[in-house]
Amino acid sequence: MNNSYNRRRFLGKLTFGLGITALGTSGISSLFACSGSTNEKRTQQAGEQKAQDKLGIALVGLGQYSEGELAPALQETQHCYLAGIVTGTPDKADKWKKKYNIPDKNIYNYQNFDTIKDNPDIDVVYVVLPNALHAEYTIRAAKAGKHVICEKPMAITVEECDRMIAACKEVGKMLSIGYRLHFEPHNKEMMRLGQEKVFGAIKKLRADNGTGSTEGWRLDKELAGGGPLMEVGIYCVQGVRYTTGMEPIAVRAKEMPKTKPELFKEVEEALSWQMEFPGNIIAECKTSYSEDMNLLRADAEKGWFELSPAYPYSGIKGETSKGKMEFEQVNQQARQMDDFAKAVKENRATPVPGEMGRQDVKILQAIYQAMRTGQRVEIS
Ligand code: NAD
């Protein structure tokens, strides 16, 4: 884009009272700087995004999900943009700053992360770290005065979730969980069909989510908090909760025999469990790190409705007893982050708040307790 056009547009925005405080003086001066240095250009481009009234997001943890999904999605968002990064790997910082035009002043490591509080470019911190680190970084981000999006599962324990929610409340900032499927049309249709009882009352549900392999920290109980239940089984818990619009009252669970005990030393390899809802509705669920599965199905009084696959980033297919669902495939992450940015701007609640993440962690913990004890575990 032509520079004088941008400058005019920016000045136009300023006359409507936008942007001065958000940009800070360094942002403004760099926007008008004539120097051709690359970093100044990056600062200028970041300033332009701010001037368009977009919220700045900083991704914490530049692993597969940030690199493969969130950063590309942030190139499509209307209400937020990739403003900063937090990484422990200098090589990654270099690669990302070139690829996404991130100015040096918006690049942090895990040690200096707390100084992000002084950076007006960053409105939202998005925690995309191994599960056991979600609580620490969410709380540090809140203390730095930022809104937070935290990836699923929200944390390892309910107590951590409580501290995360309290930290954000204390500073008056919003907390949301990366539940992208709440912004996906087929999954939204499952919510509508189930909650509005379009096929009558639901009688039973089936939810399976499994992947054929895994590696790294996901096999480490301390970092992951558990096996496939924490990673992909959580989508089944979410799926049956949003399809019924109800909360489970009890769970039962059974660990499946390990086919690769040398790999799954600390966490389960596969697990099946049952969730009991009011009205005698039963959800049968399965998760695995050694079998690909992807289903969400409800059987109701007057028909059935299902997604298969139900949970991937794209290619979701839906069908009901009356025929196929016809919905577009969307960029789920872009919609999720845009909705959060709009919620912040409009000062309204997010549909996927910390409390929802906490409830899932509570259910996951009950499922593990049921697995360990062989007992039916009630959820208070
Ligand atoms: P990953 O292993 O690819 O990336 C993790 C990142 O954390 C890496 O950049 C790593 O360097 C960094 N890190 C910092 N401290 C670490 C430590 N002590 N040990 C290991 N890594 C450390 O993982 P990912 O797939 O990007 O997953 C990150 C989070 O995102 C997880 O909580 C996961 O559940 C979630 N996730 C969500 C979705 C979704 O669809 N919503 C999809 C994938 C992952």
Report on this structure:
There is one protein chain. The protein is α/β, with parallel strands linked by helices. The N terminus is likely disordered. Helix 4 links the parallel strand 1 and strand 2. Helix 2 packs antiparallel against helix 3, helix 6 runs parallel beside helix 7 and helix 7 packs antiparallel against helix 12. The strands form two sheets. The chain has a nine-stranded mixed sheet. The protein has a six-stranded parallel sheet with strand order 3-2-1-4-5-6, sandwiched between helices. It has twelve helices and 15 strands. It starts with a helix and ends with a strand. The structure holds nicotinamide-adenine-dinucleotide.
In summary, what is this structure?
By secondary structure, the chain is of the alpha/beta class.
Ligand identities: nicotinamide-adenine-dinucleotide
Distance between the termini: 57 Å
Major β-sheet profile: 9 strands, mixed
User: Poorly predicted ranges (pLDDT <50, ≥5 residues)?
Assistant: 1-36
Give the C-alpha Rg.
22 Å
Helix and strand layout, with pairings?
Elements: H1 3-15, H2 20-32, H3 38-51, E1 55-60, H4 64-73, E2 80-86, H5 90-100, E3 107-108, E4 124-127, H6 134-143, E5 147-150, H7 158-170, E6 175-177, H8 185-195, E7 202-210, H9 221-224, H10 228-244, E8 250-255, E9 270-277, E10 281-288, E11 293-300, E12 303-307, E13 318-320, E14 323-324, H11 332-346, H12 354-373, E15 377-378
Parallel strand pairs: 1-2, 1-4, 2-3, 4-5, 5-6, 7-10
Antiparallel strand pairs: 7-11, 8-9, 8-15, 9-10, 11-12, 12-13, 13-14
Bound molecules: nicotinamide-adenine-dinucleotide (NAD).
